[in-house]
Specification:
It comes from Thermus antranikianii. Keywords: Isomerase. This is 2-(1,2-epoxy-1,2-dihydrophenyl)acetyl-CoA isomerase. The strands form two sheets. A six-stranded mixed β-sheet has the order 1-2-3-4-6-9, with helices on both faces. A three-stranded mixed β-sheet has the order 5-7-8. It is 46% helix and 15% strand. The chain has two domains: 193 residues, 2-enoyl-CoA Hydratase, Chain A, domain 1, CATH 3.90.226; 47 residues, Orthogonal Bundle (Lyase 2-enoyl-coa Hydratase, Chain  A, domain 2). The protein binds ligand LHQ. Ligand LHQ binds next to α2 and β5.
Length: 254
């Protein structure tokens, strides 16, 4: 259900239930969680790329999974939440290549990417409210941070289907490229990141994630702590040395 391919320091993950628009099941979530955990622990993986197989990125929760009756979504969401925590806490850059529609929790997965590319034919829809559900998989947290509170209100209450270009105008995606070039561009970006100071990226991600929770004084203190850590990396030393020697740096991710 999750295809894995390694290209140098980049781990490419493809959600792979194309006949169901890569809709998410509990089994897919558990597999994704394991893969993310392994990637986190593998020093050879310096960047990740997440995309979808077939014409969709991900249609969100598989609406066929629970059948009739009243499902226990609270319990099911625990399986989602550990995946979201793994994505948000991933100490490596995550490039997301949105190849087609991203709906509901599928849109949430896309938004957890650090750099988000979309094919021209991709689209985004929160979808939750259309089936009488509240936003989940971290959507209520990440969406207002990306687009602002007012736009998040509109998107979550009305659930329009946004084109890739509309999503880019809102800041949901960083770049829009023709579909046939999407993977190539996303991979080039992931490769570039994989050769960067990946420990520093992890610390930068942590600072950004913490920022809305902290007072200015606390944010400054955290910056100082993490700068202390970054300052002790081999990559910082190499970066400064390369600058002085007027040559490109060779970063190793520690
Ligand atoms: C699907 C799905 C799908 C199954 C299309 N499931 N089959 C978390 C935890 C707990 C509870 C529940 O929720 C959550 C989080 C969530 O993600 S809630 C939101 C769940 N997702 C949706 O509500 C999206 C439903 N799908 C759609 O709105 C459309 O299908 C989208 C906008 C994704 C794509 O539209 P189209 O490109 O026009 O394709 P389509 O609608 O024709 O779909 C193609 C096929 O895929 C179709 O099956 P069929 O047998 O008729 O060809 C759909 O039924 C199936 N499919 N989404 N989530």
């Amino acid at each position: 259900m999750v295809l894995k391919e390694r290209q140098e320091g980049v781990l490419i993950l493809s959600l792979n239930r194309p006949e169901k628009l890569n809709a998410i099941t509990g089994a897919l979530l558990d597999e994704l969680y394991q893969v993310l955990k392994e990637a986190q622990e593998d020093p050879g993986v310096r960047a990740l790329l997440l995309t979808g197989a077939g014409r969709a990125f991900c249609a969100g929760q598989d609406l066929g999974e629970f059948g009739e009756g009243k499902p226990d979504y609270e319990a099911h969401l625990r399986r989602y939440n550990r995946v979201v925590e793994a994505l948000a806490g991933l100490e490596k850059p995550l490039v997301v290549a949105v190849n087609g529609v991203a709906a509901g929790a599928g849109m949430s997965l896309a938004l957890w990417g650090d750099l988000r590319l979309a094919a021209l034919e991709a689209s985004f829809t929160p979808a939750f409210v259309r089936i009488g559900l509240v936003p989940d998989s971290g959507m209520s947290f990440i969406l207002p941070r990306l687009v602002g509170f007012a736009k998040a209100q509109e998107l979550l209450l009305l659930s329009p289907r946004l084109s890739a270009e509309e999503a880019q105008a809102l800041g949901l995606v960083h770049r829009v490229v023709p579909g046939e070039r999407l993977l190539e561009e996303a991979l080039a970006l992931a490769r570039e990141l994989a050769q960067g100071p990946t420990r520093t990226y992890a610390l930068t991600k942590k600072l950004l994630l913490e920022t809305y929770r902290l007072s200015l004084t606390e944010a400054l203190a955290l910056e100082a702590i993490l700068q202390g850590e970054a300052g002790r990396t081999q990559d910082h030393e190499e970066g400064v040395r390369a600058f002085r020697e007027k040559r490109p740096p060779r970063f190793v991710g520690r």
